[in-house]
Structures are given as C-alpha cells and as structure tokens.
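HUMAN: Mind making up another protein with tokenized structure?

ASSISTANT:
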Amino acid sequence: MMHMHVLRHVLFEGLGAIEPWAVRKGFAVTETRFWLNESLPNPREIDWLVIMGGPMSVHDERDYPWLAPEKTFIQEVIRLDRTVLGICLGAQLIAETLGGEVRKNAHKEIGWFPVTLTDSGRTSMPFNALPASFMAFHWHGETFDIPPGALHAAESEACTAQAFTYNHRVVGLQFHLECTRDSVGDMLIHCGHELAPAPGVQSCQAIQDGCGYTTGMHRDLEMLLEAMFRAAAAGDR
C-alpha cells in the first residue's frame, strides 16, 4: 500500500478534495499536525508528501520553531525522489528549500481568480493535463521566485509565480484547487480580518458567492493528481 503523508500547519487547512482521491487510489494517509507538536515520520517510509497552507510565513521560525525541521524534512523527501505536492505556504516552503526567495507579493491575492499556464506549463507534465486557463481559489500575501532548476508552469494577473514543477516529481501550487465550500468558510472565519478592500482582494460576500467554482476546481485537481500519479508510476519502473 502506498503511503501519503500530509504536513498540516493549522486546523482549518486540510486535504480537502485531495482526500477522497487518495482513498480511491488506495493510499494509507497519515499526517503531522504541527500545532499539536506531532513528530515527523521517517522520510523513507512515505511515497507522497503533501504540504498544506497556513497563515504564517516561511520566515516565521521564531514564532513557529517547527518550520526549521519541516524544511529539512522536505529537503530530504525531495532528495529521495518522492512525489511532493505543496499548496500555498507548502509551495513557498518547497521553493525556499530548493533555493528560491520567498517575499511579499505586490498585492494580496484573496478570492476566485483565473490561473493561466505558461508556454512551458502547457507542454510539460503534469500541468499539460490541465486546461490552458482555469479558475482557482487564492489566499496569500507572499510569493516566491521559481527555484533554480524548476519549470515555471502558471501565472495569474496578480502573481507571476503561481506554479512550478521540479524533476517531474515535485509540484508547487500557490493557488488552491483542493478547497471545499466548508474549507473556504473556515478560512473566512479564521482569516477574514485580511479582507480589507485592496486590489486583488474580494469581499466576504463575493468569496461566498463564488463557491460554485469548487466543482470545476475539483475536476482540474483530479486531472493534475492523476498526471502526477502516472508520472510517479513511470519513474518507479
């Protein structure tokens, strides 16, 4: 049985729509909940690593001391050539681990906004499984440089670095495809104070009204995950 391990930074950001896909694929799913000071597993014992989002920054090691061992763990899992998916903060952690800089974006990007694949993204695995442009959910104030050796796969109007892939097994998404109506509601409850009027920030009502987008997002998510699954199977042969 394949083992998927999940790194979670806050209670209100979990696997979302990734979980039913992982169950259908037969993964054993475990997690480290850093806010509960849970331990990290042996990196050699996992096949897939999924790194979720959170409101903290990759630079907040003083306030969140578990960030330092988490980064070391991510680096080791990548070195072992496992499949890695990072979402939002998770993508920023991967980018920094691979040598990219994480910094403030020009504007916060919060709400439902389209993402467009780059020319490289449209022709490269696993992003070539996705439409050339698609809707995604966003909640971030920071961005990252595409790490050395990685392929820049997607962008949006407010943020150039929306996605990358590294060595065909590591994927970073600044945006969310996994969110459900419930998890979007949880973000509004816990982070709604960030919705001050600004370029790239939608209102609470607009975010609630856009939850119908999750149907298409989950379809696109499954296409991406299936492409990653095929790439991993091909690499393991």
